[in-house]
Amino acid sequence: MTDIQTLVQNQKTMFRAGKTMTYTYRIHQLQKLQEMLNRYEPRIYESLHKDLNKSSYEVLTTEFGFLQQEINYTIKHLREWMQPKKVKTPTTHKGAKSLIYKQPYGVTLIISPWNYPLHLAIAPLIGAIAAGNTAIIKPSELTPYTSELIKEMITETFEEKYITVVQGDKEVSQELLEQPLDFIFFTGSVNVGKIIMEKASQQLIPVTLELGGKSPCIVDKDAKLEYAARRITWGKFVNAGQTCVAPDYLLVHRDIKQPLIDHLKKEIEKMYSEDPMQSGDFSKIVNDAHFDRLVSYLDQGKIVYGGKSDRTNRQINPTLVDNVDWTSKMMHDEIFGPILPILTYENLEEIHDHIEHSRNPLALYFFSENEKKQEWAIKNISFGGGCINDTIMHLGNNQLPFGGIGTSGIGKYHGKYSFDAFTHEKSVLKQTTSFDLAFRYPNSKVGRKILKKLFK
Ligand code: NAD
Questions:
Q1: I need a labelling partner for 144 at 20 to 30 A (CA). Which of 95, 164, 177, 344 fits?
Q2: CA 294 / ligand 1 centre spacing (Å)
Q3: GO molecular function, one example (predicted)?
Q4: 301-348 pLDDT, tens per residue?
Q5: Per-residue model confidence (pLDDT) at position 184
Q6: What pLDDT, on a 0 to 100 scale, did the predictor assign at position 442?
């Protein structure tokens, strides 16, 4: 047996023993996870800085703080979520009770990407623990400091047969996918998502796929431009644009393009200074390949702001690009960097085809004061989730399920939805033995008459 096969077998044995199922065990493990994060807080900041030059403020808001909130919320509500849910029973089933039991899947695999390497490995783990599963985490090989830290923290805190980290690239990932897993939670690119689903289908393993795509940001002519510019600047350039729900491109009503660009320039300078890469606090691009890909976009339009890049430190300053063609490479790929193309429209209807062209975006942002137009965008465009008059903030409300649709993913999580993602809802009918209604049996004399009445 390979090491990975042994690991999965050991987790299977652990799960079957039933230890992970009890409320007390789950709560204790969530508390251990929380203590682990607190204990390692300074090293978390350090490793994210080394991997991505993330500022401490960004680590606090988008990684560390997010996880703390998720754990607190889960601890508070777990008992209530675990209870079997009693549901109505129809008259045809008189005497019986109907219940939905919350059943953990068993051995789960969490595969995570590099852009929020701590957040995206640990947030699903909270759901896995809460729901009573064991878990194997495969973090990204592109953020070695944070992935190594995740391994160290998890190894110190949990038994290997309960939660463990397997480091490596796609070969390791593929070996894990060959195992008799019970559930797979994948966050990453659309292309790899397809591979994961294909692999999972061979064993009919259920999956959640949290993928990406091109998320449009539409600014209509009646939008409050100062707020729009500020919120777009923040959402686009946090983590240097390496955010799955970052506004990928701007679709601006023709009449307000120039004033919006002027506001954006002001907001970028207020938030990040005139030369963010000199400030030492602006995230860097994860590797040379992504850096080169992003720089190649810079001549696909007219740079109206920014454009400075530094290959040694893998940094690109916030950049606004005008006169971009829909057929350019930049408008085909998910940008995933601090470059914001600006396209214009005249009528809202005309944007529909363009957005549909890039298939179901993970997020959509619509800035307008007009409620009718807001509702039009919400109802007529397919997207995973989004905001009206803001960017990214929907992700921070754990009452809202987070996930994609179609090409941007399958399934959802955050808050209670994370518990649900890692839970099988097992339907059980508890029948009475005090009596036995005969009308359902084929030899019943009155059966047909009663059933016809009941089915009406
Ligand atoms: P990726 O798909 O390249 O890699 C994700 C994970 O899959 C990594 O752990 C990697 O080792 C593994 N992997 C890569 N190739 C594989 C293969 N052939 N078989 C099995 N496993 C493989 O994604 P990435 O570059 O790390 O992350 C960026 C992408 O993730 C973007 O598309 C972004 O939109 C998306 N993303 C989505 C969310 C979300 O919540 N929906 C969050 C963050 C990132």
A1: 177
A2: 17
A3: aldehyde dehydrogenase (NAD+) activity
A4: 999 999 999 999 999 999 999 999 989 999 999 999 999 999 999 998
A5: 98
A6: 87
Pocket-testing residue among 109, 194, 244, 359, ligand 1, by greatest number of atoms within 8 A of Cβ:
244
pLDDT at 349: 84
Q: What 8-state DSSP symbol labels residue 402? A: B
Position 238 scores a pLDDT of 97
The span from the CA of 335 to the CA of 293, in Å, is 9
Query: What is the per-residue pLDDT across 42-51, written as a single tens digit (0 to 9) for each?
Result: 999 999 999 9
Computed over its alpha carbons, how large is the radius of gyration of the chain? 25
- Provide the greatest CA pair distance for the chain: 88
- For 263, the enclosing helix (H) or strand (E) is helix 257-272
pLDDT in tens, 379-392: 999 999 999 999 99
State the Cα angle at 240 between 235 and 242, rounded to 5°: 80
**Does residue 47's CB lie within 6 angstroms of at least one atom of ligand 1?**
no
Residue of 51, 111, 169, 189 to mutate, ligand 1, most atoms within 8 A of C-beta = 189
CB distance 211 to ligand 1 below 6 Å: yes
* The pLDDT of residue 453: 82
- Reading the block at residue 123, the tokens are 């947030």
**d(Cα 56, Cα 48) in Å, to the nearest integer?**
9
DSSP element (H, E) containing 219: strand 216-219
The answer to whether 205 and 129 are in contact (CB under 8 A) is no
Residue 419 · residue 125 · CB < 8 Å? no
Read out DSSP for 106-168?
SEEEEE--SSSTTHHHHHHHHHHHHTT-EEEEE--TTSHHHHHHHHHHHHHHS-TTTEEE---
356 half-sphere exposure, CB direction, 13 A CA radius: 8
Cβ of 115 less than 6 Å from ligand 1: yes
Which residues participate in catalysis according to the annotation?
210, 244
* pLDDT the model gives residue 447: 80
Nearest residue (CA) to ligand 1, atom 9: 140
- Tokens read off for 117: 């390497």
Among 137, 169, 173, say which to mutate for ligand 1: greatest number of ligand atoms within 8 Å of CB.
Answer: 173
SS3 288: helix
Ligand 1 pocket member 26 (CB < 6 A): no
pLDDT of residue 35: 98
Cβ pair 339, 319 in contact under 8 A: yes
Domains, the chain, with CATH or none: 4-211+409-428 (3.40.605.10), 216-395 (3.40.309.10)
Handedness of CA 359, 194, 384, 283 (dihedral sign): negative
